[in-house]
Amino acid sequence: MKFVDSKTPAVDLQVSIGSLTLKNPIMTASGTFGYAKEFEPYVNLHRLGAVVVKGISLLPRAGNPPPRIVETSCGMLNAIGLENVGVDRFISEKMDSLNGVNVPVVVNILGDTLEEYREISERLADVEGIAAIEVNISCPNVKKGGVAFGTVPEMAASVTKAVKESCSVPVIVKLSPNVTDISLIARGVEEAGADAVSLINTLIGMAIDHRSRRPKLANVIGGLSGPAIKPVALRMVFQVAQAVSIPVIGIGGIETAEDVLEFMLAGATAVQIGTANFVNPRASEEAVEGISRYVADQRLQSVRELIGGLILAD
Amino acid sequence: MSQIQEKTQIIRIDRLTSDIVRLTLDAPNIASVASPGQFVMIRTGETNDPLLRRPFSISQTSSDGHFQILFKVVGRGTDLLSHCREGECLSVLGPLGSGYRIDTSRPACLVGGGMGIAPLLFLGKRILQNGVDQRPLVVLGARNREELQPLIDDFADLGLKVHAATDDGSLGHHGLLTDVLKSLDLGPECMTYVCGPKPMMAAVYLFCRSKKYGCQVSVETAMACGMGACLGCIVPLKKGGYGHSCSDGPVFDAEDLLWQL
């Protein structure tokens, strides 16, 4: 018999992302949770739905020069430059400890070319302990003049197809909000075989120091995250959830269980908590506790009743 | 790992000058395991603006479970903190990072500029507690007497003599802290423990390199998380690539950093 955690009422919090079943809808967002180990002192990792690890490229990347981050009103800009250890070192150095934490591991991948996405997926395909792959398509396609994969439906679809062909785990495609119509991209990756979409990645922004007349980031522009972007994220999740029939994973300024509820009502099957991890490393676990209490208090059969439950008109 | 998130109560607020504040926090779990050079991340308010925690090095701990931070009001986060009241609670993460590596076999010289003096008090205390043949030399600099005197007093309480330098000459040497350093007999094999503004640390490192002294510096960078997740707090390394000041540092061997001299 299993122990019942006294803090968590026994409620049905399960959600499905393709063939992957999560014990609850709370995940951590790529690039905000390290390789999970960093959060072990603060979080009971096994209580989370899943963790998404820092984006992995084919070869190691040193990332951008400093300054890489700057705080903005209710948010922050980052231009980390995808610093990571590369797929081989990720497998040899990070997977062991990830397998030890007893939580589904989603590996976020990125590339400069279609071939790179394919090759990373192939190398990850046989690695034990990977529950799903999340594809970051916000990177520039170096063979197409640097246009981001995620901004052209056909390019987003071809990346999705390449990854799907190279691995057997569920494939989540993480969408960029820096597009004219995110629904078009979402439909493109759905048709190409994506098992789910996650959105939004950061909004491209900029900060300037008027005294020095210089940009505050060495990279000049960076990705905006945090509570500041939540309304934009909610709107896009709402729109995409109506445009596709695959699960939508909501991301963008989520800090609390109340935020999670809002995203699920807008149509998200699951959510990812990102920047909030920096401010409160326990944010993800506290959101699990909060959602659990809510489902119990409202006497819902399951958390799934909330998905897309937004009331638009009486 | 011993780092934790602790709800701490403000025990005491000392306003050392119009814009320099010392906070004493009751944080037994952090104070009992912290070592000199380590830092904490403090949430400066309950709202989302400012959003991120602020890093502060620990300026000393006490055996009754308190620790102190020292800061100058430089922006909104520090301004909010400076207006806290005794009895209020603050959320603190810590202790974080890897601090100074005390080399007991070598004579020590503590070199601090401005708010960089903060972690050196903790270090001086720990060196004395460890028991040493030679008391550490202390060289401190700041803009003026008003800023420097209260900080010197802390070291005097430990029985350590301070060699001072101020920008305006109102206390000690009129000019650079490195001038003072050069005038002292540091002995062979000296290990310097440094914290302060970047140009000052670069000058101290240059001096140490010429004398073949050891040199450990505590760097300050912007950071979002303080625990190795955001990868925002980088410093360029001599061997290429970057180190992360929150997890590889904040204390680095000056030799390992890429200095723009």
Features:
heterodimer; A: 314 residues; alpha/beta; TIM Barrel; 8-stranded parallel beta barrel; 4-stranded antiparallel β-sheet; 8 helices; 29% helix; B: 261 residues; Elongation Factor Tu (Ef-tu), domain 3; Rossmann fold; 2 domains; 7-stranded antiparallel β-sheet; 7-stranded mixed β-sheet; 16 strands; globular
Q: Can you tell me the CATH architecture of chain A?
A: Alpha-Beta Barrel
> Are there runs of chain B of 5+ residues with pLDDT below 50, and where?
none
* CATH superfamily descriptor of chain A: Aldolase class I
- Principal-axes geometry of chain B comes out as globular
Tell me, what is the CATH class of the largest domain in chain B? Alpha Beta
CATH superfamily descriptor of the largest domain in chain B: Nucleotide-binding domain of ferredoxin-NADP reductase (FNR) module
Number of strands of chain B: 16
User: Taking Cα atoms only, what radius of gyration of chain A do you get, to the nearest Å?
Assistant: 19 Å
Distance between the termini of chain B: 37 Å
> Average pLDDT across residues of chain B?
94
Sketch the topology of chain B as an H/E string, one letter per element. EEHEEEEHEEHEHEEHEHEEEE
Topology:
The complex is a heterodimer of chains A (314) and B (261).
Chain A (H helix, E strand, L loop, with lengths): L14 E3 L2 E3 L3 E3 L21 E7 L12 E4 L2 E4 L8 H14 L4 E5 L4 H12 L4 E7 L3 E2 L5 E2 L4 H14 L4 E4 L7 H10 L4 E4 L3 E4 L1 E2 L4 E2 L5 E5 L4 H14 L4 E4 L5 H9 L4 E4 L2 H4 L3 H15 L17
Parallel strand pairs in A: 3-4, 3-18, 4-7, 7-8, 8-11, 11-12, 12-17, 17-18
Antiparallel strand pairs in A: 1-2, 5-6, 6-16, 9-10, 13-16, 14-15
Helix pairs in contact in A: 2-3, 3-4, 4-5, 6-8
Chain B lengths: L3 E12 L4 E7 L1 H4 L7 E4 L11 E4 L2 E2 L4 E7 L3 H7 L6 E8 L11 E6 L4 H13 L6 E6 L2 H13 L4 E5 L6 E2 L2 H7 L7 E5 L2 H14 L2 E5 L15 E3 L5 E3 L6 E3 L8
